[in-house]
């Protein structure tokens, strides 16, 4: 019962977002400078019409309704908006949505298999690797890539290759432990 | 961020034609351009996405040297086997730059076109800054100047250039291949960036309608023996207070053909020419001689109020870099 409520709420989100965008659109050149494209997110194709100046972060959150990716600094400094494009970790706040047409985008919502959490998500819970949780989506997306890249062989290496993800609660020791616990796992 | 049209170029000819239009600006990795757009530092009417131009991301190495395509990503160049083996300073400088996410995005050409991280230049609310709005003055000159340049600055601007790998390129005598509708020209990396001057707003010799196509680095024994040392206030993900790229031939413990370039001390990668000359024939084991040689380049340093530490830090960093390249550290 609870699960179906969540599913139907999620299904409504895109419609709500699109309506809001249309309602607030200004009759300025900005409104005309839009592009229609297909965003491929977590295996699904989303035909969208976005302003050229929209970041991928805003398109994911406001147009598609995937709010798991977080906006921290919006300047490429904090890592909270980390996602994967074509398998590489990148910052969605420094990416224009119009430049990602047809590319394979993975967000935090795309890691779990149904109710089965991804091993790195499980490791973050087991190691108590967050307090407020705001940076956690970005930390986990970065960690998955860090492990796949082969950059999680030691604590020092994890600290270096996770340095693009800032944690204001300073859960760093637990984050390093969580990432190290998944190092070398085949299923990452 | 103002509105703009976007064009995707699929060939160099397309890109050059689009770039020649008034108000056009190229975009590659976007890590700098997006921040400029958000801060209002630039307001193009047309962004030209060059990522689909074929061949522009290639990295090629042969006996004569290394050619890095402008669209090659920082992380890919850093991990390139031949770059690591024959040009270690380049790989080291890249791996000490930015974060893994940004290195996956940022292009090598764009890296050279970064603009200063001076807080007055990057301010959310525009502050007096000659780089931001010509003629408004330099707030750092009488303000927060801890990160400021000690070489080559003028009252017009005292900011430093943020790139790490440009410093490695300067130390390895790299050159930049520039393409325009008029053809190709090649300029030395050391002459690519300009020191601040009231007479011009340009920060590089890149002309309107021109784009970076590649970076060339000549192969040499010195390049194989190069290294990059970066000193910063955090262990990772921070710009340099000072940095040093060095390359020389180790002739049984004697320095031959030394090249030294520094970051964090000027508006461009700064070659220490006097030190290079003085290091010729010096024993790598002679710490006092290394220091004396390197000090020669710091005689021309001009200091502000809060950046005086950069002289001693710079000298020590340069000595240390030579020791590392000489196998002593």
UniProtKB/TrEMBL annotation, chain B:
Q: Which SUPFAM superfamilies match?
A: CO dehydrogenase flavoprotein C-terminal domain-like, FAD-binding/transporter-associated domain-like
* Pfam families noted in UniProt: CO_deh_flav_C, FAD_binding_5
Where's the FAD-binding PCMH-type domain?
A: 1-222
Top-rank taxon of the source lineage equals: Bacteria
Q: Which UniProt keywords apply?
A: FAD, Flavoprotein
Give GO terms: molecular function aspect only: FAD binding; oxidoreductase activity
| Name of the protein in question | Molybdopterin dehydrogenase, FAD-binding protein
Please name the source species: Chelativorans sp. (strain BNC1)
């Amino acid at each position: 019962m609870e699960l179906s409520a969540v599913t139907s709420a999620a299904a409504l989100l895109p419609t709500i977002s699109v309506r809001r965008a249309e309602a607030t659109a200004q009759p300025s050149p900005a409104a005309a400078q839009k592009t229609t494209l297909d965003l491929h997110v977590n295996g699904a194709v989303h035909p969208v019409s976005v302003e050229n100046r929209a970041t991928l972060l805003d398109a994911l959150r406001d147009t598609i309704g995937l709010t798991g990716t977080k906006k921290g600094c919006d300047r490429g400094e904090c890592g909270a908006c980390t996602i994967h494009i074509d398998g590489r970790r990148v910052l969605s706040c420094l990416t224009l949505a119009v430049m990602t047409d047809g590319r394979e985008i993975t967000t935090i919502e795309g890691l779990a298999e149904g109710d089965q959490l991804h091993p790195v998500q499980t490791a973050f819970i087991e190691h108590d690797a967050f307090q407020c949780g705001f940076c956690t989506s970005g930390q986990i997306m970065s960690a998955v890539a860090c492990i796949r890249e082969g950059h999680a062989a030691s604590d020092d290496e994890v600290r270096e290759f996770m340095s693009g993800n800032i944690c204001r609660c300073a859960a760093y020791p637990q984050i390093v432990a969580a990432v190290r616990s998944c190092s070398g796992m085949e299923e990452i | 961020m103002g509105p703009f049209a976007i064009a995707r170029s699929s060939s160099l000819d397309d890109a050059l034609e689009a770039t020649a239009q008034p108000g056009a600006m190229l975009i590659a990795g976007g890590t700098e351009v997006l921040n400029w757009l958000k801060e209002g530092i630039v307001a193009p009417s047309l962004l030209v996405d060059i990522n689909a131009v074929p061949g522009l991301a290639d990295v090629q190495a042969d006996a004569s040297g290394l050619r890095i395509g402008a669209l090659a990503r920082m992380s890919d160049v850093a991990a390139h086997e031949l770059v690591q083996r024959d040009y270690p300073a380049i790989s080291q400088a890249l791996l000490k730059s930015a974060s893994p996410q940004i290195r996956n995005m940022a292009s090598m050409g764009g890296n050279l076109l970064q603009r200063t991280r001076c807080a007055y230049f990057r301010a959310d609310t525009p502050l007096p800054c000659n780089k931001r709005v010509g003629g408004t003055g330099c707030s750092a000159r009488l303000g927060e100047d801890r990160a400021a340049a000690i070489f080559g600055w003028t009252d017009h601007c005292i900011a430093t250039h943020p790139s790490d790998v440009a410093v490695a390129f300067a130390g390895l005598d790299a050159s930049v291949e520039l393409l325009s509708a008029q053809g190709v020209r090649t300029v030395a990396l050391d002459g690519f960036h300009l020191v601040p001057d009231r007479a011009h707003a340009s920060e590089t010799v890149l002309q309107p309608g021109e784009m970076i196509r590649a970076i060339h680095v000549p192969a040499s024994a010195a390049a194989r023996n190069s290294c990059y040392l970066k000193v910063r206030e955090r262990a990772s993900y921070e710009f340099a207070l000072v940095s040093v790229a060095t390359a020389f031939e180790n002739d049984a413990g004697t320095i031959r053909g030394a090249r030294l370039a520094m970051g964090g001390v000027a508006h461009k990668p700064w070659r220490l020419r006097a030190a290079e000359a003085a290091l010729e024939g010096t024993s790598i084991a002679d710490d006092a001689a290394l220091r004396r040689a390197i000090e020669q380049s710091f005689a021309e340093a001009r200091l502000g109020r809060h950046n005086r530490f950069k002289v001693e830090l710079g000298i020590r960093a340069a000595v240390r870099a030579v020791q590392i390249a000489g196998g002593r550290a």
